[in-house]
Design goal:
The chain has 66 residues and is mainly beta. It is built from 1 helix and 3 strands; from the N terminus they run E-E-H-E.
Length: 66
C-alpha cells in the first residue's frame, strides 16, 4: 500500500483568542477527491494555507507528493 498524499494529525490553529481548527485528523490517499465545505469562518481557507505552508499550526502534517 502506498503512503497517503496528505496526512494530518491533531491539527490545531488559533487566531488570537479564536480557535479555528481543533484536533483535525485527515488523510488524503492517492486517487481520492475531496471537497471542503462550510460556512464563512469555518476554517476552509486556513486549512488550505496550512497545507500550502503559508500558515503555521500545531500538529503533525506529512506530505508525500511525487
Amino acid at each position: 500500500m502506498s503512503k497517503p498524499l496528505v496526512h494530518i494529525q491533531n491539527l490545531n490553529l488559533q487566531y488570537q483568542y479564536k480557535l479555528v481548527l481543533r484536533d483535525l485528523n485527515w488523510t488524503v490517499n492517492h486517487g481520492e477527491n475531496w471537497l471542503l465545505g462550510g460556512i464563512s469562518g469555518s476554517g476552509k481557507t486556513s486549512l488550505a494555507k496550512v497545507i500550502a505552508g503559508l500558515q503555521n499550526a500545531a500538529g503533525k502534517l506529512k506530505f508525500n507528493f511525487d
